[in-house]
Each structure stands twice: as C-alpha cells, then as structure tokens.
C-alpha cells in the first residue's frame, strides 16, 4: 500500500507582521504557508505579529498546510511563540536554527507539556554549520517514540552568513551540505525542503535552482514571493509526460507476458520492481496534487 503523500512543492513564507500578505496567501496556489515570526518580523513588531499569526491560523489559510516559524528558544519571544503554537495548533511548528538532536527533542517535549495536539509536527531549519554536521543525529530523533519531527528546511541565507560561502548560480559551495542534509532526512523518513531564492525578480535563475533542487531529491522549495509559486509547483510536481510514462511503465511490468520476470525491457531500458514503486509514487503524488484546491 502506498503511504499518504502530502504535496509540498511550494512552501511560501509570509511575515506575520504583514496583514495584507497574510490575506493574500489564503488565495495563492502554494501547497503550504509558513507564517513567520522570526527573521521577517522586526523586534518591535513581534508581539503584534504573534496576535496576527493567531488570528490567521484560527481563520485558516484556504485549507493548505500551515506552519508557524517561531523565534528561537533563546530569544525573548520564543516561549510565547511556542505557547501560541500549542494553543492554535498549526500543522507544524518550524524551528529556526535547530541546534542539536536534544534541542529538537526539547521542542517536542515542550509542545507536549503545553498540550499541543499530537498532530502538530515539528519542522526544523537546518541553517547552521553545526546543524549540517549533526543533521543525521537530529533526523534520527524522528524514529523515537512520539517524536513530532517530520521535515527539514534548508536555510541558505543563514548558512552563508555563518560560514562565509558565496551562494552563486549553481550553488557549488553549498552542494555537499545540501546533499548531506537530504541524505540524513531520507535515512530517517523525513521530508526535505530546499532553501529560499532571494531574487524574486530573476525568474530564469529561480527556475534553474528549482530544477537543481528537484534533481537533488528535495520535495519542494521554500519561497518568499507569490511570483515563485508556479515555477516551484511545476518543477517539483510530476508533469504530464512523467505521469504518462509512469502509467506505461506499470502497464509494461505487469503485462501478462512479463509475469514472473524480475527484470523487464521497457522502451529500451531495464525496469524492475523498484521502478514500479517509483512510478506508483509519481502517480500517487499526481493524485494528491489533483485533490488540492489549487492544482
Ligand atoms: C520580499 C518582499 C519584502 C517583497 O515585498 P513587496 O515589495 O511588497 O513585493 P511586491 O510588491 O512584488 O508584492 C506583490 C504582491 O504580493 C504580495 N506579497 C509579497 N510577498 C508576499 C508573501 N511572501 N506572501 C503573500 N503575499 C505576498 C504583496 O502584498 C503584493 O500584494 P498586493 O497588495 O495584492 O499587490 C516580500 O515578498 C516578503 O516579505 N517576502 C517574505 C519575506 C520573509 O518571509 N522572509 C523570511 C523567510 S526567508 C528566510 O528567513 C530563509 C532562511 O531562514 C534562511 O536563512 O535562508
Ligand atoms: Mg534563516
């Protein structure tokens, strides 16, 4: 049986301090919205932003998945942000600058203690040198009983800030780190979302980075502007060609003349049961996207 698939092609950050953007996000075709209380909100606006986040989550964001990025536990706002998350129960709490496996466990314990429903997931931003190095240890906490950890998001801006790397087209300096985080996530069954692309007016550069993120294995991309949604949805969702090929591949492998064969020839190449599994996943993702209100 195929596990339920949640499309996460496009996760749009929306500053909680921006009421107009919160309203607009409701009607945009991103698969998820991340309401941000952290870096997109100036210190003087934190308290008001928290109340706006409360109202937006309570009202709902058009049925799409909603995450709340809280401020860090070591900031003056972190505790109140987490209390808000426990009371309004978004789909996920996005932890910025996740520091260690123990820090990830601690967020889960604190949500438990605050009475957050079990369905509230923990998502972790991997955006420090230490987090990249310890990504596997953090991801493994997802395998512990009652863990809420479900997803990693790459934070390339903070990674660049701390390490000094220059993020240029092609992201050569970041690639080993992206791959390490992706592997850590997959080894423990987590979803993995690629970093934001700051230059929202550069459509060609953004499309190239989406294609690269898809090739690297990410489920989707985090976004900062509505103009980025369509390209991310196209890059991370199966296209009509992918769907047609998946159907043809399954039909070929399961054809009566191939019964009992482990390896089958399909359009000049070898396919095995594992390729059927990949094709079935493609079709399941396509079905899940079709079931969204904003395919
Ligand atoms: C980058 C922006 C500040 C640009 O805003 P603006 O100048 O208002 O853009 P536009 O005039 O082009 O906007 C056109 C309309 O779209 C709406 N809009 C803009 N952005 C969003 C959004 N994110 N969500 C919903 N709606 C949005 C505007 O309101 C306009 O609407 P209308 O009035 O109908 O014309 C702005 O885009 C922005 O604030 N983006 C999000 C910034 C953010 O959240 N940053 C934090 C997350 S990124 C990060 O921290 C990454 C990570 O941690 C790391 O380390 O890498
Ligand atoms: Mg960051």
Automatic annotation (TrEMBL):
Its EC number is 4.1.3.34. One of its GO terms (molecular function) is citryl-CoA lyase activity. Its cofactor is Mg(2+). Coiled coil: none annotated. This is Citrate lyase subunit beta/citryl-CoA lyase. Transmembrane segments: none annotated. Keywords: Lyase, Magnesium, Metal-binding. Signal peptide: none annotated. Belongs to the HpcH/HpaI aldolase family. It comes from the Bacteria. Residues 9-226 form the HpcH/HpaI aldolase/citrate lyase domain.
């Amino acid at each position: 049986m195929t596990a339920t698939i949640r499309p996460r092609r496009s996760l749009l950050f929306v500053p909680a301090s921006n009421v107009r953007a919160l309203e607009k996000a409701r009607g945009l075709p991103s698969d998820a919205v991340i309401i941000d209380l952290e870096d997109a909100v100036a210190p003087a606006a934190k308290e008001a932003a928290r109340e706006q986040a409360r109202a937006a989550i309570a009202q709902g964001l058009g049925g799409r998945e909603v995450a709340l990025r809280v401020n860090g536990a070591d900031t003056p706002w972190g505790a109140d942000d987490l209390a808000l998350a426990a009371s309004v129960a978004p789909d996920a709490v996005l932890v910025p600058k996740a520091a260690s496996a123990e820090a990830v466990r601690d967020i889960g314990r604190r949500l438990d203690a605050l009475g957050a429903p079990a369905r509230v997931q923990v998502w972790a931003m991997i955006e420090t040198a230490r987090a990249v190095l310890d990504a596997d240890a953090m991801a493994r906490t997802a395998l512990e009983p009652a863990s809420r950890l479900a997803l990693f998001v790459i934070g390339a801006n903070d990674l660049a800030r701390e390490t000094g790397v220059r993020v240029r087209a092609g992201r050569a300096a970041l690639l080993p780190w992206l791959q390490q985080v992706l592997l850590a996530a997959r080894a423990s069954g987590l979803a993995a979302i690629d970093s934001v692309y700051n230059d929202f007016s550069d459509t060609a550069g953004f499309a190239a980075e989406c294609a690269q993120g898809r090739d690297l294995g990410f489920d989707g991309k985090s976004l900062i502007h509505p103009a980025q949604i369509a390209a991310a949805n196209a890059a991370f969702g199966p296209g009509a060609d992918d769907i047609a090929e998946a159907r043809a591949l399954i039909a070929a492998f399961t054809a009566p003349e191939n019964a009992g064969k482990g390896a089958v020839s399909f359009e000049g190449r070898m396919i095995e049961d594992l390729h059927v599994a990949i094709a079935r996943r493609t079709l399941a993702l396509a079905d899940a996207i079709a079931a969204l209100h904003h395919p």
